[in-house]
Amino acid sequence: MRTDGELATDAIRATDATAATAATTAAWSDPPVRWSLIVPLKPLALAKSRLSAAADALLRPRLALAFALDTVAAALASPAVADVSVVTDDPAAAAGLAALGARIVPDSPGAGLNAALAHGARTVRSLRPGAPLAALNADLPALRPGELARVLTRASAFPRAFLTDAAGIGTTLLTAAPGSELQPTFGGPSRCRHLASGAVEIVLDGVDSVRQDVDTGADLAAAFALGVGPRTAERWAAGARAV
Ligand SMILES: Nc1nc2c(ncn2[C@@H]2O[C@H](COP(=O)(O)OP(=O)(O)OP(=O)(O)O)[C@@H](O)[C@H]2O)c(=O)[nH]1
Ligand SMILES: C=C(OP(=O)(O)O)C(=O)O
């Protein structure tokens, strides 16, 4: 039989253990967790081919750059974001994105989107070991910093998580907590692949700006309805001419 004193000590130990567990959890799941984002961007001359019905061959690369600049500017303005690394081999895009404050990682694998993301993840973790990672597409011109913060805060409860695109078929964001690998399988119907890989789907209302990627003219109209960033608005108004 334990004495009252021993029981009281046990209770204090249990409280301490609970507090320690809570502190460990809080260190990860409570704000301010600040994420390292990895944004892939293919050479602008090759980008946004599915926009051809809405934009000619001169305008498409300029729109792709405007989307990327608005995406990265909004991401850098999010309270949940520590830094943004853009994996690209495009020199003009690299200059513009670096001027916003992004780190530029050359796409040295040159082996497509998922290889670029895996390379970006390795690079970021070599610089910031244990960083929480989020891959985010560069074609989210309506992205809002607060909506991105809500998605990332929800993602922080899981080892890996993702957000499906506006169509509910692809993926706009994939996360990996410290100690987890990103395991990106983007491209086409990636929602199913990310689910099958064990990533948890984030389901939240009011985060349309994080889901609205722009592949087609209809997507662009939907992004405008949400409200695009200033570079996309200016580029669309100017068309292909210099601004
Ligand atoms: N670094 C890098 N980024 C890529 C590559 N392929 C696609 N991306 C980026 O991945 C994201 C999603 O790409 P997609 O929407 O499939 O391609 P897109 O060029 O934007 O559009 P489409 O030409 O219509 O397929 C965008 O941010 C692209 O710029 C690649 O090989 N390397
Ligand atoms: C890369 C993706 O988007 P897209 O629809 O542009 O291929 C994806 O959803 O995995």
UniProtKB/TrEMBL annotation:
<protein>
    <recommendedName>
        <fullName>Phosphoenolpyruvate guanylyltransferase</fullName>
        <ecNumber>2.7.7.105</ecNumber>
    </recommendedName>
</protein>
<dbReference type="InterPro" id="IPR025877">
    <property type="entry name" value="MobA-like_NTP_Trfase"/>
</dbReference>
<comment type="similarity">
    <text>Belongs to the CofC family.</text>
</comment>
<feature type="binding site">
    <location>
        <position position="171"/>
    </location>
    <ligand>
        <name>phosphoenolpyruvate</name>
    </ligand>
</feature>
<comment type="function">
    <text>Guanylyltransferase that catalyzes the activation of phosphoenolpyruvate (PEP) as enolpyruvoyl-2-diphospho-5'-guanosine, via the condensation of PEP with GTP. It is involved in the biosynthesis of coenzyme F420, a hydride carrier cofactor.</text>
</comment>
<dbReference type="InterPro" id="IPR002835">
    <property type="entry name" value="CofC"/>
</dbReference>
<dbReference type="GO" id="GO:0043814">
    <property type="term" value="F:phospholactate guanylyltransferase activity"/>
</dbReference>
<keyword id="KW-0547">Nucleotide-binding</keyword>
<dbReference type="InterPro" id="IPR029044">
    <property type="entry name" value="Nucleotide-diphossugar_trans"/>
</dbReference>
<comment type="pathway">
    <text>Cofactor biosynthesis; coenzyme F420 biosynthesis.</text>
</comment>
<keyword id="KW-0548">Nucleotidyltransferase</keyword>
<keyword id="KW-0342">GTP-binding</keyword>
<feature type="binding site">
    <location>
        <position position="187"/>
    </location>
    <ligand>
        <name>phosphoenolpyruvate</name>
    </ligand>
</feature>
<feature type="binding site">
    <location>
        <position position="190"/>
    </location>
    <ligand>
        <name>phosphoenolpyruvate</name>
    </ligand>
</feature>
<keyword id="KW-0808">Transferase</keyword>
<feature type="domain" description="MobA-like NTP transferase">
    <location>
        <begin position="70"/>
        <end position="159"/>
    </location>
</feature>
<dbReference type="Pfam" id="PF12804">
    <property type="entry name" value="NTP_transf_3"/>
</dbReference>
